Amino acid sequence: MWCIGKMDAEYRKRMYDILDLYAEPYDSLYPVLGIDEKPKQILGEKCSALPMKAGTCERYDYQYIRRGTANIFVGVEPKGGRRLAQVTSKKKKKDFAAFMDMVVKAYPKVKRIRVVLDNYATHFPSSFYETFTKKKAERLLHKLEFHYTPVHASWLDVAEAEIGIMDTECTGKRIGDMETLTKEVAAWMQRRNEQKKCINWKFTKEDANRKLARHYVI
Questions:
Q1: What's 105's domain CATH number?
Q2: Helices then strands (H, E): number in the chain?
């Protein structure tokens, strides 16, 4: 627990808020989405891979060519079985704001999107005002309701679990260019959405109190 810091009243307030969201029955008019981003190195091969044969996996040389980095935004609706992903070259304020614009457009009929996210510097309303006109920024923010994890508690963001799945099924391998990465992520997202893969979040407030109470600061 050394990296978490004090589990003070503010920590518990934020934690309980998010756990309450996850415990709510599904409501399509007020969906809950976890939002996070994942850096990805673009790595090319120095030598051609040896193709797969009967009884032998495809084999890659340990050497590679660095071709820069990319960023992958991921939004996941754990109870709706829907996710959105976007590959970008950066993860600056304008990139985050543009991704959230895409998220809002993907939910045209909802009343409010409850967004769980960590405290990264771009994850705040200022990103919208610095990227869009005041009118558009306010229109987007009216559709969004931000719920921030406690500091050092990004494990409460369900998007981290989805990113782990993405790494296992798609991005946890060498990918040599942005175009291929974009296509791979889009295909993975489409497949997961067609299968309506949900995330069954089981950690509750009662679990938190039972397992973490000795760390609480009064």
A1: 3.30.420.10
A2: 7, 5
